[in-house]
Amino acid sequence: MKKYLKIYSILLKNAFSRDAHYRADTITHWITHIIWLGMLYILVDVLFRYTNVIAGWTRPEVFFLMNIFILSQQIFLFFFRDNIYQIPNIITDGKLDSYLVTPANTIFMLVTKQISLRATGRIITQTFLLGWLLFHYNLTISIGNGFILFFLIILGIIIQLAHGLIMNTLSFWWLRIDNINEAWFNFGQTAKYPLTVLPKTLRVLTYTIIPIAYQNFIPVGVGLGKLDFGFIGLTITYTIFLSFLAGQFWNFGLRRYTSASS
Amino acid sequence: MKKYYQLFSMFLARYLTYRARILIWMFTDSSQFFLFPFLWMAIFAQTTLPNGYSLRGLVTYYVVLAVVSTGFISHCSRHIRTEIIDGMVSRRLVVPLPYFLVIGMAEISYKYISASISGLSIFLLYIFARDFFIFPTSFAQWLMFVFSLGITFIISHLFQYLIGLNTFWWEDINALQTTEEIINAIFSGRLAPLTFFTMSIQQLADYLPFKYVAYVPAQIFIGNIGVDQWWPVFAPAFVWILGLSLLIMLVWYRGLRRHEGFGM
């Protein structure tokens, strides 16, 4: 454990020195983020021009749901996203060799190598925005439910990581599928909206094969008291199951890997 | 003409080598529309639809958007960015083919595959699920729809080309791409039919080219734009095509002056 903490602190220092070189990039992405938030506001405005409630969710609740989604995405970006996105190229180009010979867990090294500090500004923006939403719309979440919400968001991020690893492990079979991450990113945007609009069969899929509900729908649903506490058990069980599956699948895929450079 | 056909074949062969990639891109382009029909159905379960729309029409609208997005929207900016950064553009300059047409043929060969699959999807829906969707009722309407797909491709291609050329100034055009995508999402009608938005957004959308890459083809398909409206619908599109082409020429020549080719 001590060894991994040391490795992570070194990676964090690297991240600081790297991001110091890309300050302009960080600011432009932050501005883009603000524009994106504006677009979401316009969209919600359009949706609620015709109704006050969408499948049991009011306007403030949908806003809250969307903003938790963005927060969850930004935390995932901060810790893991860039690393997960690089896996197909690492496998295809034979760069995995250098990870395999490292005296540390390969998956740990793969998914933590790059910390995206540029997401910090967006995480802070989102946190303030969420605070403002709660205050402005008078949304009440008890302290206990607030902790549960936070805990479920963390589990949701672990599920995203495990799912991302499973998808990218497919690179051992199909070469050059780096765009699978963009496909998932695009489809994952579905989670911004209340999933209660989906028919029951499709909703079950979002809890299982395409687990987008864990990013924000279940945390916010439980936090706001719209879903029962049974979903906490479901999330914990699914996190353990998917993490185990991701590890096993990676080891299975690794057997197909042929070194290209060493 | 033969050299362009060879270029087309060469790019086609390259794309077909990584077939899984094409299928994933198609999923990427179409999956963003998956939830919207359900969302609107939930909304309009409690209230009446705006004039000119039925639930069947609304579902068809998003299906057409998915087809248009998959088969007819260009994504060449990424290709251009890679070529400029890797210095490939320097090699292209000494080849007796205009760079614009090389990139155009690369995109056309890719769209040849994705548009074929999209066309097949529409055909299968027409054969097996005709009752669930709205289809054009006359040959003239089909013709106008196909014509609008051509306009969709050209306008999206010119826009993407222009964004790609910005790599001459900024290496990272991600922020520019994202900003364009956001503006495009609102004013093209990809999120919702433009008539669902406030009047000010509708008026602004009328002055921008984005509606030709989603809203116009979908509206023609479901019959909300009549076949007698060719001129008022497409005349502004031609003005945009001309304007964007001139801008591209200007940016291209200015960009080349900044470009430094190494290792030739």
UniProtKB/TrEMBL annotation, chain A:
The chain crosses the membrane at residues 30-50, 62-80, 147-166, 229-252. The keyword Lipid metabolism does not apply. Keywords: Membrane, Transmembrane, Transmembrane helix. It comes from Candidatus Magasanikbacteria bacterium RIFCSPLOWO2_01_FULL_40_15. This is ABC transporter permease.
Automatic annotation (TrEMBL), chain B:
InterPro entries: ABC-2_transporter-like. The chain crosses the membrane at residues 21-46, 58-77, 89-106, 112-129, 141-162, 237-256. The keyword Membrane applies. Keywords: Membrane, Transmembrane, Transmembrane helix. This is ABC-2 type transporter domain-containing protein. It comes from Candidatus Magasanikbacteria bacterium RIFCSPLOWO2_01_FULL_40_15.
